[in-house]
Specification:
The chain is α/β, with parallel strands linked by helices. It is built from 13 helices and nine strands. Helix 7 packs parallel to helix 9. It comes from Flavobacterium algoritolerans.
């Protein structure tokens, strides 16, 4: 019987949290899925952990290291379902994730995301997301350069994903932001107002280590969204031409954002009282937030009319 959901789980040197991620998928109340675990050239014990599982729903692949987008494309091409579920090797899916997401499937829906509990490296919860729920508000947030949908939480319509051209290999960071803008032109993007994923934040997250590249790629995607308004992947020439302009425009904004994210992560690792102490000792964090707000507004105005 054809599975209703194909879960794509890319793995690269993820041995520390991998078993917990796999276990959380296998423990789903919704059972009609296949789990494609793709080892993208790991050099740690990831493959040994993967080999320890024997479940008819699991399909294991090993490939040379090609990065996340290459691994996602590899998995999507080999998936047997009409709906693709994303999962990262350091996160934890709650048992009712697929069951609740599947209830929201409709002909005009392209992407179904969820809220998430934020956990630190030790699995301790320190916050929850509160993203927009409906398509219009999600797109407005994207256009405001704001997080609005959690990539490893999503269920994606495979036909719409393929019609939009899939992930752009040029967007080796912030590949999801670019896809959401393109796929939003042919289908709705929605979020379920429940935390159905534990999203792990730690120092090795790509979003933390390469925030400057991610920011530039988001801005390039926005420029393409406004100027071309197409669901087709942007041409190479457009990417390189616009990236030169954005690199000059975004320096101060990115500096402020990186400082803000660093401060947020430090706050997240403290208890409630610790957060108050941190803010008292670091009032510059509030000033930094104001700088981000003002510099982003100027930057987005430039992007809109590039």
């Amino acid at each position: 019987m054809q599975p209703l959901i194909s879960v794509i789980l890319p793995v690269y040197n993820a041995s520390k949290f991998l078993a917990e991620a796999i276990d959380s998928i296998l423990a789903q109340d919704f059972q009609n899925f296949e789990l494609l675990i793709i080892n993208d050239g790991s050099t740690d014990d990831s493959q040994l952990i993967i080999n320890g599982y024997s479940d008819k729903r699991i399909r294991v692949f090993e490939k040379s290291n090609g990065g996340l987008i290459d691994t996602l494309a590899f998995g999507i091409e080999r998936s047997d379902s009409l709906w693709i579920a994303r999962m990262d090797a350091d996160d934890v899916a709650l048992p009712k994730r697929f069951e609740i997401q599947f209830q929201s499937i409709a002909d005009d829906v392209a992407v179904i995301g969820t809220q998430a509990s934020l956990i630190n490296e030790d699995g301790v919860e320190y916050g929850r997301t509160k993203f927009a729920l409906n398509h219009k508000d999600i797109v407005v947030q994207l256009e405001n350069l704001s997080s609005s949908i959690i990539h490893p939480s999503v269920l994606i319509n495979k036909k719409m994903l393929e019609k939009a051209g899939g992930y752009d290999p040029k967007m080796h960071i912030a590949e999801d932001f670019d896809l959401w803008l393109r796929i939003s032109k042919i289908g709705k993007i929605i979020n379920i107002d429940q935390p159905l994923l534990k999203l792990r934040k730690h120092g090795s997250n790509i979003s933390a280590t390469k925030l400057d590249i991610a920011t530039d790629n988001c801005l390039i995607s926005l420029a393409y969204h406004y100027k071309i308004n197409s669901l087709v992947i942007m041409p190479e020439e457009f990417y390189h031409t616009v990236s030169k302009k954005i690199a000059m425009w975004s320096k101060s904004y990115k500096k402020n954002v990186i400082e803000w994210e660093r401060g947020k992560n430090e706050i997240g690792n403290n208890g409630s009282f610790g957060k108050i102490i941190y803010l008292t000792m670091h009032p510059n964090l509030i000033v930094n937030y104001a700088r981000i707000f003002l510099s982003k507004k100027k930057l987005l105005d430039k992007i809109k009319y590039t």
